[in-house]
Design brief:
With 729 residues, the protein is an alpha/beta fold. Helix content is 50%, strand content 9%. The chain is globular, with a radius of gyration of 27 Å.
Length: 729
């Protein structure tokens, strides 16, 4: 009886503690996140609120007497980071940022060998890029966002870019100023192109924007910011940066509205207009926009404002730039006295006209501490070094990682880690954050997780980084083959700076003598890494499936370059026998690339197109969304053809194979007739085909992906010599 009373008392005490803890909203949010990942995990984890560590975010991990793991943090975001640390290090689990990938857990959830206490090194952890909203997120719905927001919390992001739904706000502003609904919707671009409309690069391309889109995005953004705030994130909302419809010139003939420079080869009809920030209309528009946006989405008082991204300002005079910044900031604080300005430093990298004198003038137009700079591409070029740490304005060190969502093997990971450590030592309080400004998610998460982990005081050697990563991708501790593979990738391959148009050759318009658009590394090292991956007994995790596909398709693409070079030499030699042999191998390689990509659904064209079509039950709207989805990853627009190409199943097998067949056939005909290749005619055919393909609305055939390890081993034996050097030298 005494034992029964004792057990009842203990259970009652535990329940009381749990209920008390659950009363805290941060604890409740952490519990809810954990439950979304796994109900079994939820039963094993207890969350607890603790005080910050000397003002910094902090988490702790320990076991309790009931055989559970206690994750404590000063807020829900810190608790999420602690939970992710437990999953990564002790459960050997990677949580995917894709909603359809379940969280794989070991059969027995482990306890900890020792407790941990880890504090944040910087207060701000930024994520996303305007471009990501076009290249990856254009057709996302709530279930996609819900997992992604959880992923951001698990990786400590507390300052995400949150620009969904703003077109509905602008519709209300522009119609209130005299434009019709149809005029405004025609001013907007299509859904996939909205990032470049929002950055004042183009107007109207692939529009008009449907009413259904506008309404649906408002509801989506309301859910996004609500969840982000619940997880202690501070969403960065947009503000008016001066971009206005050309129609306002007619409605307000006295307003100082000027055309900005043309962008990326687009016709003048798509050029954008800028309202001088000194004009009285500027402050009026800012107030209208911010008040309506706050009514719909609330505010955290931090706004993304990028007035001249990849377009020239009306003047580079330092006094003009200083005044533009000052007036923009004053227009913000006139509406929101607590307003802070978040500014991309990309313009400093992209536009060399911004000399230190001009940059200083522009940045000091805003009070110190009220503008935070995102140093956008630090793994390649740290602009804070060229501009005196931004002249007193705080900055966030950012890793870009990819352009256009290109799917090739790239990422200057190890160098990024070294640069972060140097910046933390050299910049002091000026460096207030670490983040990533990736243009597309791709399928490989590691580089971005690595950079975000640097925001926390988890001192790791390179060996520990590799071992923990390999173990969680393999799903077991001490995964020898995976560790060897990732050791090669980390030290010998992922030291590559991404570059514009860094797509694999297979995903580009064929040109004679054009050998490669890809990044540079020792391909034999990549083959060694793949061999270690294929030496595993099995592939049991989504992360390792991605690894095998990611590395394998790059190797097949590298081999394609060799075959294409040999084909071009045969053209020059007028050797039709060699041309046939090489072209057969080229087309066979493209077919095998398609098969390998099909092993992961996020490496398929069908998944991307299905996302677009599912936005509407109206077939006409579904066709419109699909056209946007097809165009942006192929013909794009202007002079950006293939900028956002993807090495995907369906896209390689259908779209790019058609272009390569035409190249091969044209070359064969030219050699047979002893005439030069008619490249002008071929370009016209390619342009016509691209237009037809963009509106074809024919879903690519998708065969279920084969067992990735079996297929990869078959392709390894088929295409590469047995030796580790293979035939890539």
């Amino acid at each position: 009886m005494n034992i029964h009373r004792m057990m009842t008392a203990v259970i009652g005490a535990v329940m009381t503690m749990t209920l008390a803890a659950s009363a805290d909203p941060d604890v409740q949010q952490a519990q809810d996140l954990c439950a979304r990942l796994s109900e079994r995990l939820q039963r094993h984890i207890v969350f607890k609120k603790i005080e910050p560590c000397r003002g910094a975010d902090v988490f702790t991990l320990e076991n309790n007497a009931q055989g559970q793991v206690v994750v404590a943090g000063n807020n829900a975001n810190s608790m999420a980071v602690g939970l992710n640390r437990y999953l990564n290090r002790y459960c050997h689990t990677t949580v995917s940022w894709y909603a359809d990938v379940p969280v794989a857990l070991p059969a027995t959830l482990p306890l900890l060998p020792a407790g941990e206490r880890v504090a944040a090194r910087v207060p701000q952890r930024f994520f996303l890029n305007y471009c990501t909203y076009g290249y990856t997120m254009a057709f996302w719905q709530w279930h996609d966002w819900e997992r992604f927001i959880d992923w951001m919390a698990l990786n400590g992001v507390n300052m995400p870019l949150a620009i969904t739904g703003q077109e509905a706000v602008w519709l209300r502003v522009w119609t209130a100023l005299g434009m019709t609904d149809d005029e405004v919707r025609a001013y907007f671009t299509g859904p996939a192109y909205l990032p470049w409309h929002r950055m004042a690069n183009i107007d109207g391309w692939c529009g008009p924007l449907p009413e259904q889109w506008l309404d649906g995005q408002v509801k989506l953004q309301q859910r996004i910011v609500q969840r982000e705030r619940a997880l202690n994130m501070r969403p960065v909302l947009p503000a008016f940066a001066g971009h206005v419809p050309a129609r306002l010139r007619e409605l307000f003939p006295d307003a100082d509205i000027q055309s900005l420079s043309a962008w990326a080869g687009f016709d003048d009809r798509y050029r954008t207009c800028f309202l001088n920030s000194e004009d009285p209309l500027y402050g009026r528009i800012q107030r209208m926009f911010l008040e309506e946006q706050t009514r719909l989405f609330g505010t955290d008082h931090i706004y993304g404002v990028d007035p001249f991204n990849e377009v020239d300002p009306p003047s580079f005079d330092p006094d003009y730039l200083h005044d533009v910044s000052r007036h923009i900031y004053e227009s913000l604080t006139a509406v929101d006295p607590q307003a802070e300005w978040l500014q991309m430093a990309w313009f400093l990298y992209y536009q060399h006209e911004y000399t230190p004198e001009r940059t200083r003038a522009m940045l000091t137009g805003v009070p110190r501490g009220k503008m935070t700079m995102l140093d956008y591409f630090c793994e390649y070029k740290e602009m804070w070094r060229d501009h005196e740490a931004f002249y007193g304005q705080p900055f966030v060190w950012c890793y870009l990682g990819n352009f256009g969502g290109n799917t090739n093997v790239q990422g200057r990971v190890k160098e990024a880690g070294l640069r972060i450590e140097q910046a933390l030592k050299q910049c002091g309080d000026a460096m207030v954050g670490i983040g990533s400004t990736l243009e597309g998610l791709d399928v490989q998460q590691f580089p971005y997780e690595y950079v975000l982990e640097k925001a926390w005081a988890l001192p790791k050697t390179d060996e520990q980084v590799v071992d923990e990563l390999a173990d969680r991708h393999a799903g077991i501790e001490g995964a020898v083959a995976a560790r060897r593979a990732w050791d090669i990738l980390y030290h010998g391959v992922l030291d590559i700076t991404p570059s514009n148009f860094a797509s694999p050759l297979v995903c580009s318009y064929p040109v004679q003598g054009k050998e490669s658009r890809g990044v540079k590394y020792d391909a034999t090292l990549l083959l060694d890494a793949w061999d270690w991956m294929l030496a595993q007994d099995s592939v049991t995790t989504d992360a390792m499936t991605i690894d095998v596909v990611w590395v394998g398709r790059q190797l097949l693409g590298d081999l394609f370059i060799k075959e294409k070079q040999a084909f071009d030499r045969a053209i020059d030699a007028a050797d039709t026998t060699a041309m046939r042999a090489r072209s057969d191998r080229m087309l066979d390689l493209l077919a095998d690339l398609d098969r390998l990509n099909a092993c992961h659904r996020h490496a398929t064209l069908a998944t991307w197109l299905q996302q677009a079509r599912r936005l509407s039950d109206n077939w006409r709207l579904s066709d419109y969304y699909e056209m946007n989805a097809r165009r942006i990853i192929t013909t794009w627009g202007g002079n950006l053809n293939d900028y956002a190409c993807r090495n995907w199943s369906g896209l390689v097998g259908e779209y790019y194979t058609h272009l390569w067949r035409d190249y091969i056939d044209t070359a064969m005909q030219a050699v047979a007739s002893r005439r030069p290749m008619d490249n002008d005619q071929r370009r016209r055919r390619a342009a016509d085909y691209g237009e037809q393909w963009a509106v074809s609305n024919l879903m690519p055939a998708t065969e279920p992906g084969a067992d990735v390890l079996t297929l990869a081993r078959q392709l390894r034996a088929k295409w590469f010599k047995p030796s580790s050097a293979g035939n890539l030298e």
